Every structure is written in C-alpha cells, then in structure tokens.
C-alpha cells in the first residue's frame, strides 16, 4: 500500500530529534547521524533536501550544523516528506501532471471504472497530509481539524 521511502523516514526522524532539543540548537550532520543511528552519507542528502524545503537552516564553520526553522506546530507533514517522495499517488494515473510526465499512462485510463474513486481517495489522503502538523503527527496523528478515517471513507464513497 502506501509507504514512505527511507529518505522521508530519516527526514521525519531528524525533525523529531531536533525538536526535542532546546530551541535554536545546532547539530552537525555527523553528530545527528550518530545520535539517530543512520548512515551519514544518506542523512547528508536528507538534510540538504530539508534545507531546500526551508524546514532546516544550515550554518557553516566551527559549531555549524542544522537547526529547525519553524516549530512543529508550523511545520506540515507534507513539508517534511514532500521533498523525498517522487510518487505521492496510489496509482500512476492519479499522480500530479508534473510528476506523471515521466510515467507511462495506463492503457485503460480512459475507460477505467476505479480511476475516479481512487483519484478522489488520493486527493483526500494528500489533503490530510497537507493539514497534519508535525506536532499532531508526533503525538500520534490525532488533531483538531483532521477528518477521521470514517469521514474520509464516507466522502470517498460519495465520489464514486
């Protein structure tokens, strides 16, 4: 089913770890990799992606490293995993046009009876990830303003 890749997993771990530290604390990539128990070379790529996404800020030189730019309440789940997920759709025909450009379209796309319901479900899942703040996610995913699984299923059934 839906699965985040390793870089997204490390990005989530990084944000969680940095958020536990006093505000403004800077950690070098090597120290962060050691504390998380992950390969430094892969984590370095994740840190650069999070920097480009403006989730982290980097400082160079002695005492340099990475720190969170925003609080967990200001960060969305999608902000953290988005830079690392090439395919955020359940099936390739439901990917965004920019992402689907390199994908081969299914030969049954025009006559497929489940394409629209799957597309609607995909949009609902993406909407939930865009609403979910990192503080909600790290507290177990619950949070005001998010729809329950029952509400999502009911809305998806209305579309078909």
Q: Would you identify the regions where 5 or more consecutive residues have pLDDT less than 50?
A: 98-102
Mean pLDDT: 82
Q: What is the 3D shape?
A: elongated
Number of helices: 8
- Counting DSSP E segments of at least 2 residues, the number of strands comes to 2
Keyword list:
160 residues; mainly alpha; Arc Repressor Mutant, subunit A; 2 domains; 2 strands; 49% helix; 5% strand; elongated
Briefly characterize the structure.
The chain is mainly α. The chain has 8 helices and 2 strands. The radius of gyration is 18 Å and the shape is elongated.
Can you offer a commentary on this structure?
The chain is mainly alpha-helical. The chain has two domains: 6-68, Arc Repressor Mutant, subunit A (Orthogonal Bundle); 87-159, no CATH class. The protein is 49% helix and 5% strand. It is built from eight helices and two strands, in the order αααββααααα. It has helices spanning 6-20, 29-36, 40-52, 77-81, 97-100, 115-131, 134-138, 149-159; strands at residues 56-59, 65-68. Strands 1-2 form a two-stranded antiparallel ribbon. The chain is elongated, with a radius of gyration of 18 Å. The two termini are 20 Å apart. Residues 98-102 have low confidence and may be disordered.
Write the layout of secondary structure elements.
Elements (H helix, E strand, L loop, with lengths): L5 H15 L8 H8 L3 H13 L3 E4 L5 E4 L8 H5 L15 H4 L14 H17 L2 H5 L10 H11 L1
Antiparallel strand pairs: 1-2
């Amino acid at each position: 089913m839906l699965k985040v890749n390793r870089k997204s997993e490390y990005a989530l771990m990084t944000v969680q770890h940095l958020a536990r530290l006093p505000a403004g604390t800077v950690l070098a990539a090597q120290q962060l990799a050691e504390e998380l128990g992950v390969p430094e070379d892969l984590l370095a790529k994740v840190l650069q992606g999070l920097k480009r996404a403006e989730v982290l800020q980097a400082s160079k030189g002695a005492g340099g490293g990475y720190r969170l730019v925003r609080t967990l309440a200001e960060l969305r789940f999608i902000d953290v995993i988005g830079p690392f997920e090439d395919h955020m759709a359940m099936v390739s025909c439901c990917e965004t046009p920019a992402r689907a450009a390199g994908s081969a379209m299914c030969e049954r796309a025009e006559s497929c009876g489940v394409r629209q319901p799957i597309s609607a479900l995909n949009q609902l899942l993406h909407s939930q990830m865009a609403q979910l703040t990192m503080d909600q996610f790290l507290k177990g995913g619950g949070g005001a303003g998010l729809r329950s699984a029952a509400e999502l299923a009911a809305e998806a059934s209305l579309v078909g």
